[in-house]
UniProtKB/TrEMBL annotation:
<protein>
    <submittedName>
        <fullName>MGA protein</fullName>
    </submittedName>
</protein>
<dbReference type="Pfam" id="PF01055">
    <property type="entry name" value="Glyco_hydro_31_2nd"/>
</dbReference>
<keyword id="KW-0378">Hydrolase</keyword>
<feature type="domain" description="Glycoside hydrolase family 31 TIM barrel">
    <location>
        <begin position="3"/>
        <end position="193"/>
    </location>
</feature>
<dbReference type="InterPro" id="IPR030458">
    <property type="entry name" value="Glyco_hydro_31_AS"/>
</dbReference>
<dbReference type="InterPro" id="IPR017853">
    <property type="entry name" value="GH"/>
</dbReference>
<dbReference type="InterPro" id="IPR000322">
    <property type="entry name" value="Glyco_hydro_31_TIM"/>
</dbReference>
<comment type="similarity">
    <text>Belongs to the glycosyl hydrolase 31 family.</text>
</comment>
<dbReference type="GO" id="GO:0005975">
    <property type="term" value="P:carbohydrate metabolic process"/>
</dbReference>
<keyword id="KW-0326">Glycosidase</keyword>
<dbReference type="GO" id="GO:0004558">
    <property type="term" value="F:alpha-1,4-glucosidase activity"/>
</dbReference>
Length: 193
């Protein structure tokens, strides 16, 4: 009692995005509200872990596809515990006009470590690197062509998954904006939006 298999196995396999020390798992907050760690899908061990978790889920809950959400990675904090260090990676000289003028707003600190390097350089690949392993795991679990729907995508993600445009309101202006989004993602090689 009190254990959570995906976390325990992930911890054992060392699959998390780490703090800037490269060892301590980055801990933030996400759904359900509470402490969360973030799988590093650029790590081959994480692909093994994720595949195993998807196969075990199929034994508990019959599914035909998986919707991967909050995979930007999304975090309800600015960075993770204990906060982002004051350095040029977390606070570069130029910051685009993003929410709250912080690269770590609602995500991880840019100096967090992934298998491929700093999160600063791999942030946009987080959802992309989760989509292909999810497609392959669902296909393995179901024996059919997989259906994967992802909120975070990158150029070429359309080979393994569909993209959803995120939360919106049911108003005409939102429908109008969605048409632009659908057409733009088709330019990025994601035909199913």
């Amino acid at each position: 009692p009190g254990t959570y298999r995906p976390y325990e196995l992930g911890q054992e396999m060392g699959v998390w995005v780490n703090n800037s020390d490269g060892v301590t798992p980055a801990v933030g907050k996400a759904w359900p509200p509470g402490d969360s760690v973030f799988p590093d899908y650029t790590n081959p061990r994480t692909v093994e872990w994720w595949t195993q978790m998807c196969l075990e889920l199929k034994d508990v809950l019959d599914y035909d596809g998986i919707w991967i959400d909050m995979n930007e990675p999304s975090n309800f904090l600015r960075g993770q515990y204990p906060g982002c260090s004051a350095n040029d990676i977390n606070n570069p000289p130029y910051i685009p006009s993003v929410s709250d003028r912080s690269l770590s707003e609602k995500t991880l600190c840019p100096d967090s470590k992934t298998y491929l390097g700093e999160h600063y350089n791999t942030h946009s690949l987080f959802g992309w690197s989760q989509t292909a392993p999810t497609f392959n795991a669902v296909q393995q679990a179901t024996g059919k062509r997989a259906f994967v729907l992802s909120r975070s995508t990158f150029v070429g993600s359309g080979k393994h998954g569909a993209h959803w445009l995120g939360d919106n309101f049911s108003q005409w202006k939102d429908l109008r904006y969605s048409i632009t989004g659908v057409l733009e993602f088709n330019l990025f090689g994601i035909p199913y939006v």
